[in-house]
Amino acid sequence: xxxxxxxxxxxxxxxxxxxxxxxxxxxxxxxxxxxxxxxxxxxxxxxxxxxxxxxxxxxxxxxxxxxxxxxxxxxxxxxxxxxxxxxxxxxxxxxxxxxxxxxxxxxxxxxxxxxxxxxxxxxxxxxxxxxxxxxxxxxxxxxxxxxxxxxxxxxxxxxxxxxxxxxxxxxxxxxxxxxxxxxxxxxxxxxxxxxxxxxxxxxxxxxxxxxxxxxxxxxxxxxxxxxxxxxxxxxxxxxxxxxxxxxxxxxxxxxxxxxxxxxxxxxxxxxxxxxxxxxxxxxxxxxxxxxxxxxxxxxxxxxxxxxxxxxxxxxxxxxxxxxxxxxxxxxxxxxxxxxxxxxxxxxxxxxxxxxxxxxxxxxxxxxxxxxxxxxxxxxxxxxxxxxxxxxxxxxxxxxxxxxxxxxxxxxxx
Amino acid sequence: xxxxxxxxxxxxxxxxxxxxxxxxxxxxxxxxxxxxxxxxxxxxxxxxxxxxxxxxxxxxxxxxxxxxxxxxxxxxxxxxxxxxxxxxxxxxxxxxxxxxxxxxxxxxxxxxxxxxxxxxxxxxxxxxxxxxxxxxxxx
Lengths: 413, 139
Hints:
The complex is a heterodimer of chains A (413) and B (139). By secondary structure, chain A is of the alpha/beta class. Chain A has 13 helices and 17 strands. Chain A has two domains: 14-40 and 304-412, Aspartate Aminotransferase, domain 1, CATH 3.90.1150.10; 49-301, Aspartate Aminotransferase, domain 2 (3-Layer(aba) Sandwich). Chain B is an alpha+beta fold. Chain B has a single domain (3-134), classed as Sufe protein. Chain: A (Alpha-Beta Complex), CATH 3.90.1010. Chain B has a three-stranded antiparallel β-sheet, covered by helices on one side. In chain B, strand 1 (47-49) and strand 2 form a beta hairpin. Chain A binds chain B through residues 29, 350-353, 355-357, 360, 367-369, 382-383, 407, 411-412, and chain B through 20-21, 24-25, 28, 51-53, 73-77, 112, 118-119.
């Protein structure tokens, strides 16, 4: 008689994970690719690539319209992905999951629609000083349109919110904040700030672009009203993202874009809107992208999130130690709670030059202002070199980067 | 020496280097040797804005030739700026306008002139040609 073995949690095997990413076999300038630009976009496991191409190869059809078999299958696949997203971020209803083209589109939807719903002349919108331009500019546009003012939570020397100076007032209507800083890696205390905002009756929007790949996101536990993210930074395809919205709020928000799919009835005088989430999904959606996103989430869910996060923390610690041993190097963003992002400046070395020399050695990092110019101004730098890690990176790759930085610095000084 | 000959000279010079490190060390050295633009010309108006590194370019006409001085805040960018100035400096406007930039490809630095806007070099080249056009003799 055979006894059933108790399930044993698999130890995190980075080589097994790497084997699923075809691009990691590529050579750059004749050297094995070391990909440390995951905060810009992560690489894709084979399963995601296959799911997208299988859609086109076997069930490509427009959704929600046709009565034919393919259309039914495509619709089912799309709605199955919506349910996957719902479960993953712990939304109450699948109709609270709106597909967008990415975080930028999600925030533009939020800013445009919430602006119309909530902002009056003299009102205020609060963001933070470390936001990505995508979570600044849409709010500037909304404020301009409605005569409101944009205010920002200042940033401390360690790259965290200075919450004592949060500029809330009785005119604050909207709080729009990043869950994780793309430039510094700081994991922000969003739950705490949202609770504070809620007490004041402020509507809350979270830019989750940098969070989904690294943290367990639970929109109900966070208590936010809206939460935007992209698929491509979390092992999914480009051109697809999600705006989660609490049903009660989405119901009151006016549509952002008009077109097919988002209407109930149309006459030449007046239209009425479709039910949620379709009211916010004008036009044919990125069906292949939605299916790819669903697959990326299921792929992530196959791993123990804690083990994955621990692996990334080990990479960050190793990189931080190695980099800090370089003369004249300073790391921006030294918060206790960080995802795997090491952003640094080196005395006498321009980030562009270093980026070029790292690329020559097969190492892909991001250099520049990372779409956070106000944050660069805060730290008095024009840009940084940023290494951002993902679950498929290794300690050996970190060592290769540190050695390559040393070589680059030697050439430039 | 024509622009074409000056370009060939650059290509021959870079052919001496077999690996990337020597090539880039040479480029960085060229940047260091670049005669600096006069501080008075390092103005906002002369700034060719890249997303990451910045380039300053000043031009004037002397004896029907276009005279360029330039600078950059990044060393590799400055090295390529030095090459462009060396090749295009003190030439008749017509010759600058009709010259190709293929020599940059041939020395393995094509990526620096890609239109990804990061370093401002592609914009600098456009700006050099615009100066040449402005200084062209009127028909």
